[in-house]
Amino acid sequence: MIKSSDLDPNFKYEISNEPGGENIKKCFNCTGCTVGCPVTEIDKSYNPRMILRKALLGMRKEVLSDDSLWLCASCYICYERCPQDVKITEVIGAIRAIAQREAKAGKIKITNNKPLFDHLFIDSVKSNGKWYEAGVSGTFMLKTKGIGGAIGYAPMGLELFMKGKLSILPHKIKGTEEIKRIFEEVEKK
Amino acid sequence: MKLAYYPGCTLHGTAREYDASTKVVCKAAGVDLVEIDDWNCCGALEAIFDKELSMGLSARNNFKAQKTGLDLVIPCSICSHNLSRADTALKNDEAFRIKIERALGEKYKGVKIKHLLDVMVNDIGIDAISGKFTKSLKGIKAVAYYGCLLVRPSEVSKFDNPENPMSLDNLIKSTGADCLPFMQKTKCCGGNLLMSKQDYAFLLTKKLFDEAKAAGANCVVVACPMCHMLLDGQQSTIEKAHNTVIDMPILYFTQLIGLALGISEKELELDKNMVSTSKLIGSIGKGETKVEVKGATTDMAKAEEAEAAK
Fold it and tell me: Which pLDDT score is estimated for B152?
């Protein structure tokens, strides 16, 4: 049962104020997003229409702490087909941003590993200007699967290395100061 | 034709054969590539939770490309999407442009950005490039896999139909290879879930293989290093996870075009693909071989069987 007293009527405005979330209020819940979704095809419980409907109703905590928020593969099929130009892939990104802030403030717990990988990736770009594949993948495996997971990743890493496809050390660009300034500018919201 | 070139991180790493084959094929096609100076990562799909950061990281490369005074070509579908989106935002969103101009200390006017497949098909042209072919690739039975960002969203990628693109199909056919109908051509390989939800990524990729095999393909041709990472790089892991044999070579379209241009396998770095390409190369020129339709379960394969029976 949905209790109206549990709903947060401001949630849709919170999302629409986030970069990428601007069009969420245009959604009229036609289900076009879900019909063509490749993730829905392999997991019927993944339902982008439901995420949007819950968000519009104001079911804030439920949307932000639901694991399905992290299952979108960013394939843009729904974005392409949406008759209301909701830009769903970007709306999901905007909701993810809110969820990460809430998790940082200790208000919700995110169990999915997607934000961990994304942040390791972005941190490596912040310090080097390019993504550091061996370092990021190794750290991610170690953090999520322990030493056994990291060792499990080693044979593929070695094969890539032997083919000259994986560098042990990060490549640093010359303009890392410019990268730092871009981070500073976009963080001033 | 002279173009600025943004390879992106993967082309200097796991997709090195895409970089190598892009360079030799462009040279043969009379396209001069000028790699932009000191480029950085576009943020890939990992910065999606922060739209401004994603576009800001990409934007620095647009500024670098602008200095060359040339149009910019990008072989990676994700990089191409990100840099194109950043160009639009820099032109239309003044607040964003001011932030990035302040960070970089330069003004932005704009850069024309194209995916390499778009350049090959629409600027060089299939007739012009195929006029230089020295070898028919008859014997190769390919499916063209476009994946996601190469043709979607159409507000960013405008060169082909987002639902049923044909540019790669037509390019493949021009080499003398067969290009088979492929319903999954724009479905997602799950690349963005590879690290966080590997079982889902593998299920999505496996669906592509199931249909490619049912169609009778002996290779899949791609135009994105992320698709290649899943289909080629992860193929042996998918085989283990699903206790099956896939054994499907995955070529970058530049490797395929390179073969038709008579460029050596070594220069196209066909030995760098994780799934061996030697059996496929051996099938070139072998003429009509009977296509085995083992385990054909898709409706399309059934329809084709019915068609053949008529």
Answer: 96
pLDDT(A30) > 80: yes
B-chain CB neighbours of A114 within 8 Å are: 193, 195-197
* pLDDT above 80 for B302: no
For residues B252-281, give the mean pLDDT.
98
* Band of residue A155 on the pLDDT scale cut at 50, 70, 90: confident
Of 3.30.365.10, 1.20.1050.140, 1.10.357.140, 1.10.8.60, which CATH number belongs to B2-116?
1.20.1050.140
Model confidence at B262: pLDDT above 80: yes
Domain ranges within chain A, ordered by starting residue: 4-104, 114-187
Residue B303 has pLDDT above 90, yes or no: no
Please give the residue of chain A at the shortest CA–CA distance from B11: A165
- Are the Cβ atoms of B154 and A71 closer than 8 angstroms? no
Rounded to the nearest integer, the mean pLDDT of chain A is 95
Q: Which CATH class is domain B135-309?
A: alpha beta
Q: Which residues of A touch B195 (CB under 8 A)?
A: 113-114, 117, 137, 140
Residues shown for chain A? 189
B2-116 and B135-309: same fold? no
Q: Domain map of chain B by residue range? A: 2-116, 135-309
Tell me if A73 and B187 make a contact (CB, 8 A cut-off): no
Give contacts of B79 with chain A, Cβ < 8 Å: none
Look at residue B292 and tell me whether its pLDDT is greater than 60: no
CATH match for A4-104 among 3.40.50.2300, 1.10.1060.10, 3.40.50.300, 3.30.420.300: 1.10.1060.10
> Mean of the pLDDT values across residues B278-295?
72
- Rounded to the nearest integer, the mean pLDDT of chain B is 94
Contacts of A79 in chain B (CB under 8 A): 152-153
Candidates B225, B39, B70; CA nearest to B145 is: B225
Tokens found for residue B275: 């799934």
Among partner residues B13, B154, B191, which is closest to A165 by beta-carbon distance?
Answer: B13
Contact A130, B41 (CB under 8 A): yes
List Cβ<8 Å contacts ≥24 apart for A114-118.
A114/A70, A114/B193, A114/B195, A114/B196, A114/B197, A115/A70, A115/B49, A116/A140, A116/A143, A116/A144, A116/B196, A117/B46, A117/B195, A117/B196, A118/B46, A118/B47, A118/B48, A118/B49
